[in-house]
Amino acid sequence: MLTRSELAEMKDLVGRVSRGVASREDWSNLAALTLVWQGDAIVAAMAEGGYEMFVRVCRPQHDCHAFGDDDYQRMYTRVCAAAARYQRDLVVH
Asked: Which residues, including other chains, have CB under 8 Å from residue 71's CB and lie 6 or more apart?
C-alpha cells in the first residue's frame, strides 16, 4: 500500500509524465510506485522472489523505457521497502 508521501510523489510524477518532462529516473520511480500500489501481498511476493526474478518479470513490461540496472535496482529497493512495511504491520497488528 502506498503511504501518503508516496501517493503525493506518484501524483507529481504522473504530472511530469503527462507534461513530457519526466526523466528515466522519474519513470522508474513511477513504475515502482505503480507496483507498490498493486497491494501488499503482491509486493511481498515480488520482494521474496529476489532481484533477478524481479528484473526477469519486469523487464518485458518496461522495455520501452530503456531502463538500466540502476533503474531496476531503484524499483526493487522501493518494492522491498514496501514489503518490509507490510511485514512490520503484520507483526504489530
From this structure: 24, 25, 27, 28, 65
Question: Could you tell me the pTM of the whole model?
Answer: 0.88
Contact 58, 15 (CB under 8 A): no
Task: List, as one string, the DSSP characters of 9-58.
Answer: HHHHHHHHHHHT---HHHHHHHHHHHHHHT-HHHHHHHHHT-HHHHHHHH
More confident residue, 6 or 90: 6
Residue boundaries of the structural domains of the chain: 4-92
> What's 2's DSSP letter?
-
pLDDT, position 88: 82
CA gyration radius, the chain: 13
